[in-house]
């Protein structure tokens, strides 16, 4: 498996001081994978499943695992590194972060391509025409970010200073049970 993990210090929970002297516990996982590996998407899903089960957020496993599959799959199939990051023969890096706060869970997938992700156009339904549509007219790709948009409570992206971009999604948590 072509996986590079961050050091243990980076995986330790961080504590953020809150006004009034309280503290919130942040839980964090990060994983670096390579787009050319055959098990990249599988390794990403495994990291998500393991972290969410350890954090008692098992109810979110299916949705978050599907989102990471779609986002990492987009990197594998579509990301072309920015010219400044291209090293001949170097694998394309995919960085995955998962951060849990008491009220939110954030998933980030970073690649080396600063091209914006493209959401499919809003669909307009014409029920009276559905029987006339041939199977050939249906899209066979381009639904991944739409799926993520539906499953996550928020979806956005940002450019990285050194090049590339990160696509983020947020899942709202109710209490700390992981139920939405």
UniProtKB/TrEMBL annotation:
- Per the UniProt record, the source organism is Streptomyces lydicus
Q: Which ranges carry the Histidine kinase/HSP90-like ATPase domain?
A: 38-167
The record, for InterPro entries, names: Anti-sigma-factor_SerPK, HATPase_C_sf, HATPase_dom
Keywords on this record? Kinase, Serine/threonine-protein kinase, Transferase
Record-given protein name: Histidine kinase/HSP90-like ATPase domain-containing protein
Pfam families (UniProt xref): HATPase_c_2 (PF13581)
Determine if Transcription regulation is one of this entry's keywords: no
Q: Which GO terms describe its molecular function?
A: protein serine/threonine kinase activity
């Amino acid at each position: 498996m072509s996986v590079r993990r961050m050091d243990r210090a980076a995986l330790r929970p961080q504590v953020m001081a809150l006004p009034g002297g309280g503290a919130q516990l942040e839980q964090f996982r990060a994983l670096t994978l390579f787009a050319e590996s055959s098990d990249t998407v599988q390794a990403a899903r495994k990291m998500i499943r393991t972290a969410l089960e350890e954090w008692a957020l098992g109810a979110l496993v299916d949705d978050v695992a599907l989102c990471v599959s779609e986002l990492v799959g987009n990197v594998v199939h579509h990301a072309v590194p920015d010219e400044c990051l291209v090293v001949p023969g170097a694998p394309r890096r995919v960085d995955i972060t998962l951060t849990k706060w008491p009220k939110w869970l954030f998933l980030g997938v970073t690649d080396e391509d600063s091209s914006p992700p493209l959401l499919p156009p809003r669909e307009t339904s014409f029920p009276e025409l559905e029987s006339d549509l041939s199977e050939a007219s249906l899209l066979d790709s381009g639904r991944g970010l739409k799926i993520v948009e539906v499953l996550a409570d928020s979806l956005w992206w940002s450019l990285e200073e050194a090049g590339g971009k990160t696509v983020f999604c947020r899942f709202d948590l109710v209490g700390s049970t992981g139920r939405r």
